[in-house]
């Protein structure tokens, strides 16, 4: 596949509900929702708290520190836009505050990845776009 025919990388399209999350990432901060009535953080963004359906969700900043919950090393592209970005180090990180987030690992060799390892956020500003993606590296 040549670069002339490569598909562009898909980018997030913030919704009214998820916009605060994406806006904070653009500022190199992480904000997720918190439900005072259930005393827990919530992720992915939504309008009602899971379990209680309370409408008390508020946005709070977290430091993004966490632990690698699971991962996979994709040796083949997960789609045409990733044909030149192999291997893909796909991961799920469990934040210290509770929820998990799907992400990509960076700054680590596949052989050095370990479930349970401490990870730290990396803010990736997409060139030419007004979008920042949240990735993770070993802490």
From TrEMBL:
It comes from the Bacteria. InterPro entries: ChsH2_C, NA-bd_OB-fold, Thioester_dehydratase-like. It comes from Mycolicibacterium arenosum. Residues 59-124 form the ChsH2 C-terminal OB-fold domain. This is OB-fold domain-containing protein. Pfam families: OB_ChsH2_C (PF01796).
């Amino acid at each position: 596949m040549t670069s002339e025919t490569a598909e562009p990388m898909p980018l997030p399209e913030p919704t009214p509900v998820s916009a605060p999350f994406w806006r904070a990432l653009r500022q190199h901060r992480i904000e997720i929702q918190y439900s005072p009535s259930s005393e827990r953080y919530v992720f992915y963004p939504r309008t009602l708290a899971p379990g209680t359906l309370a409408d008390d969700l508020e946005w709070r900043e977290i430091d993004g520190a966490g632990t690698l919950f699971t991962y996979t090393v994709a040796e083949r592209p997960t789609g045409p836009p990733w044909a030149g970005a192999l291997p893909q180090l796909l991961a799920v990180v469990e934040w210290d505050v509770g929820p998990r987030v799907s992400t990509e690992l960076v700054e680590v060799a596949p052989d050095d990845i370990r479930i349970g390892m401490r990870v730290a956020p990396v803010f990736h500003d997409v060139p030419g776009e007004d979008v920042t993606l949240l990735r993770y590296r070993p802490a």
